[in-house]
Task: structure prediction
Amino acid sequence: MKPNLRWDKAKNDQLLRDRGLYFELVVEAFEIGAVIMDMQSPQKGREHQRMLLIRAHGYVCAVPYVQDGNTKFLKTMYFSRKFDALYGEKHG
Result:
């Protein structure tokens, strides 16, 4: 089941401009089965956040989000060398 995903349009535009990423890739990841995992955020001070790991552009991307009822509000998105080393295509 695809979750209800929301994000800030200005943040999405900034991600596309700065990183070549955009939140629609998360929607696509759910549709094609490219979501690796949904986990608690590993960052200190971010205990209220969770993180999706998805495959996009041949790399593992981290997508921190906050849950509000049935909605996941996506905060940002970035390529992650750490998670790519653990879960990237070269590792299965």
In short: Residues 4-91 form a domain with the YaeB-like fold fold (CATH 3.30.2310). The helical segments are 9-19, 24-32, 81-87. The mean pLDDT is 92. The beta strands are 4-7, 35-40, 50-56, 59-68, 71-74, 78-79.
